[in-house]
Amino acid sequence: MYMKAKLFADEEIAQKILKVKSPIQQKVLGRKVRHFDQKIWESNCKKVVYDGNYAKFTQNTDLKQLLMKTKGTTLVEASPTDRIWGVGLAEEDSRILDRKTWKGKNWLGEILTQLRKDLLGVE
């Protein structure tokens, strides 16, 4: 959300996002970013999320090891309420096992799968 605010030059919201601890509060603030343009966000959001996760997984050895243990799998964001970053299904929903029955795009899963490949040096 911070990078979303920075992308649209909303320094006030960016600073507020840094000060709150709750991801829910950060998300609420992210929805208040001034001069937000959906098309601009969509052309930048995957890189923002990739870069943030790159920093997260390269700075935390334990998290990186967990990510590496998923080698050979497609990562899936199991979220029944998120049809963009997730698949629109809960983890316990059997439809999650078949990509054809997903209700969402799984952008986060795709990004994490690509990040893992990049960190492993795999094409």
Automatic annotation (TrEMBL):
Origin: domain of life: Bacteria
Reactions catalysed, as given in the entry: 5-amino-6-(5-phospho-D-ribosylamino)uracil + H2O = 5,6-diaminouracil + D-ribose 5-phosphate; 2,5-diamino-6-hydroxy-4-(5-phosphoribosylamino)-pyrimidine + H2O = 2,5,6-triamino-4-hydroxypyrimidine + D-ribose 5-phosphate
InterPro entries tied to this protein: NADAR, YbiA-like_sf
SUPFAM superfamilies reported for this sequence: YbiA-like
Pfam annotation, one family: NADAR
Record-annotated NADAR domain positions: 1-119
NCBIfam families tied to this protein: ribofla_fusion
Listed name of the protein: NADAR domain-containing protein
Organism: Anaerovirgula multivorans
